User: Which sequence fits this backbone?
């Protein structure tokens, strides 16, 4: 869940905001609720495994392939129209063999190593 920090006057309140915090090989949730109540806890393995992040990946087309099969083959979360716009393509036209296209893929979160 993504939350928004709301400003009220000169003080800040946090309404149902969660933030992932990687820390020395572990991942923690920092949760803000109501007007400042906070919790900070380590994520259990099953919650950690469920975290996904969206990444742009480059995929090479097969000869004569169209966007719809390329999107399906690459497990992209973009629709055909979004992929066409991002790549400056007309979605109905076949792609050239080896033509590189950007797609968006949801992947497991991997914390950066220090």
Assistant:
């Amino acid at each position: 869940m993504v939350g928004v920090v709301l400003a009220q006057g000169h003080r800040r309140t946090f309404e149902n905001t969660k933030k992932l915090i990687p820390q020395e090989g572990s991942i923690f949730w920092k949760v803000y609720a109501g007007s400042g109540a906070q919790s900070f806890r380590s994520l259990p393995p099953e919650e950690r495994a469920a975290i996904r992040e969206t990444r742009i990946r480059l995929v090479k087309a097969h000869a004569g392939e169209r966007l719809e099969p390329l999107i399906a083959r690459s497990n992209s979360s973009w629709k055909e129209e979004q992929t066409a716009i991002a790549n400056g393509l007309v979605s109905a036209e076949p792609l050239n063999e080896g033509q590189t296209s950007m797609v968006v893929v949801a992947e497991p979160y991997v914390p950066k190593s220090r």
Residues 67-74 form the longest helix (8 residues).
